[in-house]
Amino acid sequence: MSYPNKLNENNITSLDKRHYVRSMFNSIYRTYDLLNHLLSLGVDIYWRKKSLSNVNLDQNSVCLDLAAGTGDYGLEVHKKFKSFVIGYDIAENSLLLFKKKIKNKKLDKKRFLLINGEAENISLKDSSVDLVTIAFGIRNFYDSQKAVHEIFRILKVNGTLLILEFGLPKNPIIRKLYKLYFEKILPLIGRMISKSEFAYKYLPESVRLFEQQKDIISEIIVAGFRDIKVKPMTFGIVNLYEAKKVSEEYYYNDDKNLFRKLLT
C-alpha cells in the first residue's frame, strides 16, 4: 500500500482515506500502544480516566468504543463500570490485539463484542447504546459528519458521546514547543520503533488538517446532540468533547453557524 507524500484534500479522496487509515493501523498495531504511552509519557492513560469522571454506567449498560484500536478506552470503561463493551474498528489487526488483551487480563469475554467496521456505517440497532467513546479517532473518519449522525442514531435517549482528540495549544510558547515535538521528534521516534515512516508523519498532519478544516462542535450540534461541553486538557494538547442525546430529534441543516447559537 502506497501513501501520499502529503495529506490534504486535493490528493486524497474519502475512499482513499478509508483505505490508507485501515492499512496504516493494520501495519503499526503491534507498536501503537507502546508509542502512545512513551510519546505521551503515560498522559494518554490519564486522559481516558479523566474523561469518564462525569459518566454514570452500571453492569447492564452498553458502551460502544468507536475507532477502538487495541481497546484501551473500552477496557478503561469496563474496568470502572463493569459494563458491556463493543469494540468497533476499521483495522482488524488492532481488534485482534484488543481480543488478546481481554484474554490476558482474564476478563469475561462474554462482556465484550468486537466488530470490524467503519464509523460511517455502524451495524448496530437504533437506540441500543448508553455511551460512545472515541479516543484520537474522529480525525481519521472519511466522513465525520455522517459518523456523528450514526452515533446519534445508535445512542439511547440520555446517552453520552465522549470524544478525545488532539488539538494545538493556544499559548504561543507551548504551541511552538509542541509543534516542534509533534512534527519533528514524534515522527523520528515513531519511525524507529514502528518502522512506518508514513504513520507518524500522518499523525501531526492529520491533527493540523483537523484543526483547520473541521468544526467538530458544529457537526455534533447538527447531528442533534445537546448539553455540549468542551474541556481542554494538558495545556490544550487534547480536547474532551462531551455531548448528550436528549431526544430522538435530529437535524439535517448545513447552516452550522445557526446551530452554534445553541451553545450560548
Describe the structure.
This protein is α/β, with parallel strands linked by helices. The protein has one domain (27-168, 216-263): Vaccinia Virus protein VP39 (Rossmann fold). Helices cover 45% and strands 19% of the residues. The chain has a seven-stranded mixed beta sheet with strand order 3-2-1-4-5-7-6, sandwiched between helices. Helix 1 (14-39) packs parallel to helix 4 (92-104) and helix 5 (144-154) crosses helix 8. It is globular. The termini are far apart. Mean pLDDT is 86; it is low at 1-10 and 251-264.
For the structure shown, list the relevant keywords.
264 residues; alpha/beta; Rossmann fold; seven-stranded mixed sheet; 9 helices; 7 strands; 19% strand; globular
Question: How large is the count of helical segments?
Answer: 9
The amount of beta strand, in percent, is 15-25%
CATH architecture: 3-Layer(aba) Sandwich
Tell me, briefly, the overall form.
Answer: globular
Low-confidence stretches: 1-10, 251-264
